[in-house]
Amino acid sequence: MKGFPVWTMVVCLSVVFGISVADALEPTSSVEGLKAEVEGAAERHPGIVMSRGGEYPNTDVGNYVAAIGRHLIEGTGRYDDFVFHFTILRSRSPFAFSIAGGYVYLSVGILSLASCEAEIAAVMAHELGHVLLHHGSKFGEAYLHLKQGTLQEMRAALEEVREEQEREADEFSIKMLVDAGYDPRAQASFYQSLVHFFEIVGHVPPDWRERERVRRLTALAISYPLPGTSAVCSPLNPL
Ligand SMILES: [Zn+2]
Asked: Of 20, 28, 54, 225, which sits 20 to 30 A from 231 (CA to CA)?
């Protein structure tokens, strides 16, 4: 984890409470764009797995997570002919990330923090949001078009792009959870657990941004019709 901002290595969940989320976040280049990103991703995949300590060998866990991923994708009613790859990494540190081309990675550590299937789905939906919205390619474009300035200014510009992408991925993922039949409040409840984890393990008190993320995630989730239960994790596991 050293050398990385904690909240970018783990799942970084934030949303903007807005209207017309589904319409505003339709992927722009659809299936064709995704296919074009696959080749590079396949080449990078083995190196990524090796550099993060290898794949978790329990195939039952891998199959279960892949089934959640498929269920989320099916809920969108799109991308039927596109292959997504879900990989569980051995690491006990809680993190999840994705790369352009449909590869999503979750550590054993982040799975162990989830209280139920809906919270695992929340993490995965966020990462699928990054993939389906082509955030990797767009970040690369933003990097190439950075205006000249001081290093600090350039970093700030990229951070702005990254934060915007986090908000987009969360908005997209809340809708994805709803479409798949999961309680969208799982996004906020899981992020709250993550904040709590770092409070205890890392002795890092949550700053206003983390609190704001939880508030925004909750606000967006409750803008959708919710199941008739107060507990996010109680009965709602579609698989
Ligand atoms: Zn993210």
From this structure: 20
Q: Would 63 be classed as within a structural domain?
A: yes
| Count of C-beta atoms within a 10 Å radius of residue 61 | 14
* C-alpha of residue 162 to centroid of ligand 1, in Å: 8
Range(s) of the domain holding residue 92: 9-222
What's the CA-to-centroid distance between 124 and ligand 1, angstroms? Answer: 10
The sheet that has 103-107: what strands, in order across it?
85-89, 103-107, 96-99
Q: Which residue has the higher pLDDT, 128 or 155?
A: 128
In this prediction, residue 69 carries a pLDDT of 96
Q: Which residues contact 82 (CB under 8 A, 6 or more apart)?
A: 31, 34, 35, 73, 102
Are 13 and 187 contacting, i.e. CB atoms less than 8 angstroms apart? yes
Task: Please report whether residue 231 resides in a domain.
Answer: no
Q: Does a structural domain hold residue 237? A: no
pTM score, whole prediction: 0.81
Domain count, the chain: 1
Determine what percent of the chain is predicted with pLDDT higher than 70: 80
Given a contact cutoff of 8 angstroms between Cβ atoms, the answer to whether 200 and 167 are in contact is no
169 Cα–ligand 1 center, Å: 6
The torsion angle over the Cα atoms of residues 46, 51, 52 and 58, rounded to 10 degrees, is 40
Alpha carbon 137 to its chain centroid, in Å, reads 16
pLDDT at 3 over 50: no
End-to-end CA distance of the chain: 33
Pair type for strands 103-107 and 96-99? antiparallel
pLDDT of residue 25: 40
Residue 4 maps to a domain: no
